[in-house]
Design a protein that fits this description.
- The complex is a heterodimer of chains A (381) and B (75).
- Chain A has 381 residues and is mainly beta.
- Chain A has a single domain, classed as Beta Barrel (Porin), CATH 2.40.160.
- Chain A has two helices and 18 strands.
- In chain A, the strands form two sheets. A 16-stranded antiparallel β-barrel of chain A has the order 1-2-3-4-5-6-7-8-9-12-13-14-15-16-17-18. Chain A has a two-stranded antiparallel sheet with strand order 10-11.
- The longest helix of chain A has 13 residues.
- Chain A is globular.
- Chain B is an all-alpha fold.
- Chain B has a domain of 42 residues.
- The radius of gyration of chain B is 23 Å and the shape is flat.
- Chain B starts with a helix and ends in a 19-residue tail after the last helix.
- The chains are: A mainly beta (381), B mainly alpha (75).
- The interface between A and B is large, with 100 and 45 residues.
Chain lengths: 381, 75
């Protein structure tokens, strides 16, 4: 068996190979912060020749409820997002070319992404270099009607260009490391129309009033991620990663992630993961501005607030049909659950609090917990 | 300038020959552990893309995770 594996590996290193054909059925549920989102997805990947494959996926998100800042000022949300994607992959010698399209439609948001990537194996296949580019066009709207009778006002467009370089390096027979650099530039309408600033206003019984956010119309961000994966002395893998992020809006984010993967025989794969994320606020963010129009740019979007979140996740994969069945080589069923705790360091909960209990700016800081379930079945053929 | 060009050319040739002479220190037949599915960077792309979408809609940071997605998720 070892000889056969070694021979297969030697053959595999003579040219890059495309992954197995597969079909995935996926269901997800997100609950947290007043929102419930269910997602259903199907993905099919098929090799037509040894060097050419196509992949297609369809994803539907159904949103009900609304986040804290929407609840603070508007009615509840009921929405649906449909995402279609297609990818073509072509392998020539040690190079894999990939071209993808993603189309995402909500009634108040439309997004089209085209991306191209090139993957090159080098230096005896110890090193893999990936270079990618993606262009996204978004149309941003706002629902001025109700959840059931929407009236959409289209506010503007946004474009983004994403440049990615990735390097994966085999260091020893047990250890592989990777480095990814991603620069994204945006321009256009970049604000979230459903979120508002608040400013001190003595004429309002609450002590504050709400106003429109004003964002810059450009943004450039740089993210650098380093990761390493180690095969332990017994059959299990340990992964660690760190990502540094900064952008021209003044946000600096740090992400730390650990993952432990442990197979049981050849039937179960157990996985546990921990993730910690922390960011500071954008330069034009404030939970409470001193007066209306006090700055050129003003935001009170919780994504731009100083915050931290912690994720604990577990995943179980069950392998079935080890000897195959008809056209299928094997199958897997996976259950994944994550618990995420979000804590905001300068974003206050104004939904239930106000005068006379709390003066503006002294309300409790906002926090919430979210649970994410994923169940999916993958068939390989 | 005329002297610089041959020097550059020789330098580039030396660099290229150095690249081609790099021998893989982990031989193909020693990569059975690295080929184990538990050592894949991303076993389930559909799941990773979904988690990335959730995070990107709630965090200021984005990118360098290997996934792409669309949409707002801004409610």
């Amino acid at each position: 068996m070892a000889v056969v594996t070694a021979l297969l590996l030697v053959r595999a290193t003579s040219a890059d190979v495309l992954p197995d054909d597969r079909a995935d059925l996926f269901y997800s549920k997100y609950s947290g912060g007043g929102m419930d989102i269910t997602g259903e997805s199907v993905l099919v990947r098929k090799k037509f020749t040894e060097d050419f494959a196509l992949e297609a996926s369809y994803f539907v998100d159904k949103v009900s409820g609304a986040s804290i800042d929407v609840l603070s000022q508007a009615s509840q949300i009921k929405d649906e997002r449909k995402q279609k994607s297609g990818t073509a992959e072509y392998v020539h010698d040690k190079t894999t070319y990939s071209l993808s399209f993603i189309n995402s439609v909500e009634r108040d948001y439309k997004s089209d992404t085209t991306s191209f990537s090139l993957k090159q194996d080098m230096f005896g296949d110890l090193t893999t270099l990936t270079v990618g580019y993606a262009h996204t066009d978004d149309a941003v709207g706002e629902n001025n009607g109700t959840a059931f009778v929407p009236v959409i006002a289209w506010l503007g467009h946004a474009q983004s260009n994403s440049y990615n370089v990735g390097l994966s390096q085999i260091l020893t027979k047990n250890w592989i490391a990777g480095l990814n650099v991603n620069v994204i530039t945006d321009n256009g309408y970049l604000a979230n129309p459903y979120r508002s600033i608040r400013y001190l206003d003595s004429s309002n019984p609450k002590g504050y009033s709400l106003g429109s956010q004003v964002y810059p119309d450009t943004r450039t961000s740089t993210a650098v991620q380093a990761e390493a994966k180690y095969y332990l002395p017994y059959r299990a893998a340990l992964t660690g990663s760190y990502r540094y992020f900064r952008d021209t809006w003044g946000i600096v984010g740090n992400t730390y992630e650990m993952d432990y993967t442990h197979p049981l025989k050849n039937i179960w794969i157990l996985e546990g993961r921990l993730r910690f994320y922390k960011q500071n606020q954008a330069t034009f963010y404030s939970d409470l501005f001193p007066f209306a129009d006090s700055q050129n740019f003003m935001a009170r979007d919780q994504d731009l607030a100083a915050s931290e979140n912690t994720t604990i996740g577990a995943k179980v994969t069950y392998a079935f049909l080890p000897d195959g069945w008809k056209m299928f080589k094997r199958g897997t069923a996976t259950f994944d659950v994550s618990r995420i705790s979000f804590h905001y360091l300068d974003f206050r909960n104004i939904k239930y609090y106000g005068v006379p209990d709390y003066l503006p700016g002294t309300e409790p800081l906002y926090f919430f917990n979210a649970t994410v379930y994923q169940i999916y079945m993958s068939m390989f053929f | 300038m005329r002297r610089v060009r041959p020097v550059l050319l020789v330098g580039v040739m030396l660099l290229m020959s150095a690249c081609s002479s790099i021998q893989p220190w982990v031989k193909p037949y020693e990569r059975d552990r690295l080929a184990d599915p538990i050592m894949a960077w991303d076993r389930d792309a559909i799941s990773s893309a979904y988690l990335d979408h959730i995070r990107e809609a709630r965090e200021g940071s984005r990118g360098a995770t290997g996934s792409a997605g669309g949409g707002c998720g801004c409610n």
